[in-house]
Amino acid sequence: MSRARRLSLRTVVLLSLALALAATAGNLLSAQGQKLPITWSAPSAAVRGTAGDFVAIDVSARIDEGWHLYALTQAPPPDPTVISVAAGQPFSLRPGGTIEAPLPEKAFDAAVGVDTEFYTESVTFKLPVAVEKTATPGDYKVIVTAKWQACNGSLCLRPQTTTIEVPVRVQPAK
Question: In terms of domains, do 69 and 96 share one?
């Protein structure tokens, strides 16, 4: 085989490998970009509070049909839902406060092989949030994070973290 033919064959093989790698990378990216079965939200109207006081913030999860979201009270494994208020803002979960949630459903989950506590369809959590005494009056977006895991009876997603922005208006003290 001539040198030119070997170079041409090598070029074709290398181009084929490059195209295969590009296609694989594209499939991985589209798999990562797929819609998750849990959608988190908060009311768009601002919660009103005063510096040094407490506010109740609602965050909700809409759960796609066939999926379930593990409860705050779920013993690992699988991972329970954990909701927190991000540090670095004039808001925090009220010390000693408990996040309110409806009673979860309970059943054996074949996907993980244990009894589980979970929600289907939708759930709203009520967070007791402290407004720091030093908070300046004005409009804020409180950053709430939800660490969660969901299953559908045959497979479980890896644990996910979602950030939810909740509008809060801090009013002047009276």
Answer: yes
